[in-house]
Fold:
Amino acid sequence: MKAKDFLSVQQQERLVAAIKEAEKNTSGEIRIHLDDTCSVDPIRRAGQVFHFLRMDRTALRNGVLIYLACESKVFAIIGDKGINEAVPEGFWNDVKEIMAGHFRKGEFAEGLESAVLAVGEKLKSYFPYSKDDVNEQPDDISFGGNNK
Structure:
């Protein structure tokens, strides 16, 4: 199934609402990107998308991308330099397991939503939300196509 058709409009709205909710906990910027396919390592592809979306231009370098290639059935979670320098190795492993558990049951929107909320909760102690926080990234889902 193509990335643009992977989630219903209602599911997309629910995910955008989850991003907004998660970002109430943290100054971190959370995004979801869906591709059709991924023919390279998904972490590498997520890094390419991360830079394409200019997620590496936040003030605190605290962006997080949740990447999913729908037809290839691969995903990745990556954080920017500020996060990677602050958190322990394997920081995203439990979020990946939450997603994988839902995905195995065909619950893709639920897996993405759970991951978004978990990311917001996990980042809270490293990058807490402040009243003067500026939303530096759009909260909508981005879509790609076939990617190498």
User: Anything to note?
Assistant: The longest helix spans residues 108-123. Residues 3-127 form a domain with the Diaminopimelate Epimerase; Chain A, domain 1 fold (CATH 3.10.310.50). The chain has a mean pLDDT of 94.
